[in-house]
């Protein structure tokens, strides 16, 4: 069976194509071996409009993969379930925990309003697992807390407010003829931690592409430079830093890797 992959950005922070819309969020639509999938659903404000304008029928989606429980990645799921109630939803079970962001002295709710019982076909992705032939979910990423923990993000667990350990932060990696393609949501667990875990699973196989959010908007220049050095060790063909990566980091990546980096936006398509 051929392992051809086509990815389209349905929701992202920027847009350069007429009649399409942007929002702070992320959603990748992808076709793989005859089936159609979503990786995240954005806030849900632009998902359905953009899909219609690009000729994508969301009622045909086989599986939705959710990278974590923040509303800029899960917001479109409720409406999607209304038009496609049998769709399989694949995510870590902690996406349903109440999640917050510290804004000055207040906590702003940024979690999902959905509960697991509202989803007919929910599959928990707690550990690394093949979600479909050639599509793998990382499950929970093991990582030392000092390498990723951010006190701005809070989760309520058993009535207590704690810094979010992001157990639910998962990514996808997909086998293609070009090599492994990695899809990142926000990389709250740390880009290097995530890719190192994937490398441990795939061995010496080539990483062809890395697409997604890397949560570097507030990162230091030293951290960005360190990540550039890390990427230099990967013989990738495409790096598409989007969503929460931040402009400074994305531009630095472009300067370092030239044509191998695409500053992608809503409506862009990639084939592998």
Number of domains: 1
Strand order of the largest sheet: 8-5-4-3-2-1-17
What would CATH call the class?
Answer: Alpha Beta
Could you give the order of the helices and strands? EEEHEHHEEEEEEEEEEHEHEHE
Strand count = 17
- CATH 2nd-level architecture: 4-Layer Sandwich
Strand content: 25-35%
The number of helical segments is 6
CATH overall fold name: Metallo-beta-lactamase, Chain A
* Terminal CA distance: 15 Å
The profile of the biggest β sheet is: 7 strands, mixed
CATH superfamily placement: Ribonuclease Z/Hydroxyacylglutathione hydrolase-like
* Unreliable spans: none
Briefly note the structural class of the backbone: alpha/beta
What value does the average pLDDT take?
Answer: 96
**Roughly what percent helix?**
10-25%
Return Rg in Å: 17 Å
Outline: globular
Protein name: 7, 8-dihydropterin-6-yl-methyl-4-(Beta-D-ribofuranosyl)aminobenzene 5'-phosphate synthase
Organism: Halanaerobium saccharolyticum
GO molecular function: transferase activity
Pfam family, one: Lactamase_B
Brief rundown of the structure:
The chain has 272 residues and is an alpha/beta fold.
Description:
- The protein has a single domain (5-139, 146-271), classed as Ribonuclease Z/Hydroxyacylglutathione hydrolase-like (Metallo-beta-lactamase, Chain A, 4-Layer Sandwich), CATH 3.60.15.
- Helix content is 19%, strand content 29%.
- Helix 5 runs parallel beside helix 6 (247-257).
- It has helices at 47-53, 71-74, 77-83, 191-202, 221-231, 247-257, and strands at residues 5-11, 27-32, 35-39, 63-65, 88-91, 99-103, 106-109, 121-124, 129-132, 135-137, 153-157, 160-163, 172-176, 179-184, 207-213, 238-242, 269-271.
- The chain is α/β, with parallel strands linked by helices and 272 residues long.
- The protein has 6 helices and 17 strands.
């Amino acid at each position: 069976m051929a392992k051809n992959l086509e990815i389209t950005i349905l929701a992202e922070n920027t847009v350069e194509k007429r009649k399409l819309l942007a929002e702070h969020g992320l959603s990748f639509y992808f076709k793989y071996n005859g089936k159609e999938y979503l990786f995240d659903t954005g806030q849900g404000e632009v998902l359905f409009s953009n899909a219609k304008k690009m000729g994508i029928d969301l009622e045909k989606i086989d599986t939705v993969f959710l990278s974590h429980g923040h509303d800029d990645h899960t917001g479109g799921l409720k409406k999607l379930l209304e038009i496609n109630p049998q769709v399989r939803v694949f995510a870590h079970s902690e996406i349903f925990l109440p999640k917050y962001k510290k804004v000055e002295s207040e906590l702003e709710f940024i979690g999902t309003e959905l509960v697991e019982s509202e989803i007919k076909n929910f599959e928990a992705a707690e550990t690394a697992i093949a979600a479909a032939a050639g599509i793998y979910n990382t499950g929970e990423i093991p990582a030392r807390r000092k390498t990723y923990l951010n006190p701005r993000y809070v989760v309520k667990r058993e009535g207590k407010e704690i810094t979010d350990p992001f157990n639910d932060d998962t990514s996808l990696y997909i086998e293609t003829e070009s090599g492994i393609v990695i899809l990142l949501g926000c990389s709250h667990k740390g880009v290097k931690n995530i890719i190192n875990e994937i490398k441990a699973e795939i061995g010496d196989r080539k990483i062809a592409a890395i697409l997604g959010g890397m949560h570097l908007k507030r990162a230091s220049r030293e951290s960005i430079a360190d990540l550039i050095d890390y990427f230099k060790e990967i013989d990738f063909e495409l790096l598409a830093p989007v969503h929460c990566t931040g402009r400074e980091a994305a531009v630095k990546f472009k300067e370092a890797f030239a044509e191998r980096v695409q500053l992608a936006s809503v409506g862009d398509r990639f084939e592998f």
